[in-house]
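hey can u run this one w/ zinc ion bound, need the structure tokens asap thx
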Amino acid sequence: MLVYFIRKCKAFATRKVNANMRHTLALLLAFLLCGCAPSGDSKKTIVASFYPIAFLASEITGNEFEVKTLVPAGSEPHEFELTPRGVAALNDASLILMNGLGMEGWESSLSPSMKEKTITLSQGLETLSIDGRVDPHVWLDTRLYEQMGKKVYEGIVSIDKEHAQIYADNYALFCKKMVDLRGYCNEIASSFKQKSVAVNHAAFGYMAAEFGFEQLYINSLSPNEEPTQKAIEDIIEAISSQGIDTVFFEELASDEVAKKIAAETGAKVDSLNPLEGLEESEINRGENYYSVYRENMDKIARAKP
Ligand SMILES: [Zn+2]
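ok here u go:
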């Protein structure tokens, strides 16, 4: 067994095994590590898969739980793979929060005890489809994000009734901030006519549907898909014919194709953040879901047509 495990570890290290096998090994390794780790008396944790999910948890829990995010700051979640450290965090968590709809590719490697304490926030939400696939970027619809916040609130109260009043107050404040955000965005959007926005990947479908613009995307639902030559030609044609003056890239994904398309069409480039993650520096200077969302709307408003 030990020889088998060491062999597997070597394969794991040299990435000769497929993603599923790596997940399984990460789980096995973490179980072994957890077996000898001291339990400690540190704060109880909520583990969230990636930024907007973790932000909801932080808003609702305040200081009562420590919120850990599996996808580190500065990384994008689409291609994220679980690490042994991540598995250990999932084991220790009082509550696990996920987006669902395929954003957590490692979901199938959760153990039964992890699944029992997991809430999938997109469950039951009215979703959109893009290119025949369900669009997972539900957190960019402010109304859906509020519903996700309600699920987080109910989930946290269910594991800590003692502090229910704190969570109720935090949840009420969150809802108020979302109403303010929506008001701001609606006012900006009222100046839109038939706005087309060229973006790196099709992350902005919910935002576009809510605030009345159209996204022209280079990559489909994941930022790392290789766009076809035809897709690139189509977007160049659309940018030129519609007088689009800005091609938006994302800070957490490659900007190579976006810059190439901008150069070809004479458009300028700017960043638009699908809120899949923030850079460490952004978090440190106090940026968050609300501020980045507002900034996105401001940039969309400034872009032509
Ligand atoms: Zn995405």
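The beta strands are 45-48, 66-69, 95-98, 118-120, 129-130, 133-134, 196-201, 214-219, 246-249, 268-271. anyway lmk if its weird
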